[in-house]
Amino acid sequence: MELTMIETLRKLNKGVALVVGFGLLACAGFVLTDIIMRQIGTSLGGTEEIAGYAMALATSWGMSYTLLELGHVRIDLLRSRAGAFKRALFDVFSMIVVSGVIITIAIKAWPVVERSLTNGSRANTPLETPLIWVQAPWFAGWIWFALMSTLTTLAALSLLLKRRHAETESFVGAFAEQDTLQ
Amino acid sequence: MITYVSVGLLGLLTLSIPVGIVLFLLGFGVDTFFSSFPLTRGLGNMVWSSSNSATLIAIPFFVLLGEILVRSGVATRTYAALDRWVSWLPGGLVHANVATATMFSATSGSSVATAATVATVAMPQAEKLGYDPKLFSGAIAAGGTLGIMIPPSINLIVYGFLTQSSIPQLFLAGLIPGIALAIAFMAVTALICTIRPDLGGTRRTFPFSLMLRALIDLVPILILFGLIVGSIYAGWATPTEAAAVGVAGALVIALAFGGVSLSMLTQSLTGTVKITSMIMLIVIGASFLNFTLASAGLGRELTEFMTGLGLTPLKTILVVVVLYIVLGFFIETLSLMVVTIPIIVPLVLAQGYDVIWFGILMIVLIEMALITPPVGLNLYVVQGARKSGSLNEVMLGALPYCLTMLAMAFALIAFPSIALFLPNALQ
After folding, report:
1. What ipTM does this complex have?
2. Is the pTM of this model over 0.90?
3. Chain B: nearest CA to A162, how far in angstroms?
4. C-alpha triplet B339, B329, B24: angle, nearest 5°
5. Which of B62, B103, B322, B347 is the most exposed place for a label (fewest CB within 10 A)?
6. How far is A1 from chain B (nearest CA, A)?
7. Which residue in chain A has the smallest CA separation from B60?
8. DSSP code string of B180-248
């Protein structure tokens, strides 16, 4: 059951990642158009601002995909020397910490959204974007990440308790390090 | 506080908690133990303001550019073309490894991407032509590290972002040291293969007409480099915007070579999202830790610490170099850079060093970290692309290049103008 759930989460987040990816591509197109227009003496205006928003959204919504694809860098100096059971302990412990931190971030992100909502804040820019338009989906991305990491942690924990620790490696392990770029 | 952060950092990292998360935890710790007012209240704002950044969107753009070039087969053509030009040298194809890595660095912002690309296209050739697997694979691992030095470089963007220094200047400063390192790598290869010809495989010469025809395959990469770097220094585009230009250019090149398909595009896009989020979790964590450290008075404590030690500026830098070499055995490039910036950079600047110059020195030291065991990502990438042999061979083969980098680090310390000449001349 746990593995089926992880499989579903992976598919969902792959979809999310594709949307984010095409969003970034569109943003690149937008920036390019602006550069060309500046050369002929006009401008779309506000590209910098929009690029910033795109980055904030891409970041908050892309995190879960990276998590499920084991993309967040871990140093597995000790972990790689341990046996399968101890490795699973390392992984589950690490996931509990991750979930805790991400939930904290999501909770602390709310006041930012709340302030924009109650004050009707607008960006201090030519576009005067109502900040809530961007901050609400940004906040939703962190909630999504908190949810995904909690579900992943629970799945791993449940497998560990059932003594099926060998199966956790595929979704909370660290072996994907080698194809992480950078 | 410095001791707390350093010990906490290493402790939590060895527990194999993700690097980005460790940085947040340390920030919470600084807040709890060293600050008189609650800093965690600013967490939401920090996360928002550090990710809402038009500068950082250059990261996904440069990653995407690299993904497109790798997945569309442009890399394979470049390698074949360079092979015709440099394989007459002692060491033959090993030079093609370094040269391809150098050219790819000029369009890609990432070292591992560069190493992975070259390894995939080069490895099958090594066995066929009888090269020493150690030197051959070591050269790929080392050549790949140039990706973060020669502009555009994702690491330099992150450095500029976190230290609030000029990214165009950092790019300019990285150019000469990057090219110098590439030349030094080739010189070292030639030297080794002159002394031990058996390591170098068959030297081959190609008819001049074939060499000329190969140039056509190099043109796209050169144009792309010109587009990206040119648009920045012509004043048409900021580094971020130039990255968008690069993405468009890469797509056009991939289209021209017939390497674009829907599956290639979706793979490139999801790959980009994965890497971008990985980098951003670390960057946001570092911004938060930076903020808590600064608010809790790290600056004052550092100054006291340094005065207490009574080191001269030169000795400080040497201590920093040793520190990076040691940490580089265990921690990976971007993580190593980002976790040390909040502590090391203020310390170095307080000694009167230039922030741009130190950025370049740091990159050289971090490049070394990529090919020093036990944690050297490029070594694993190259080993992953090989079908046989052990990781030890790659490590041994990378050693001469590692020493070359160390020499480069000392050259930068002795002659800062290697890095600073271009930015100063063009200011």
Report:
1. 0.93
2. no
3. 23
4. 20
5. B322
6. 26
7. A24
8. HHHHHHHHHHHHHHHH-GGGG-------HHHHHHHHHHHHHHHHHHHHHHHHHHTTS--HHHHHHHHHH
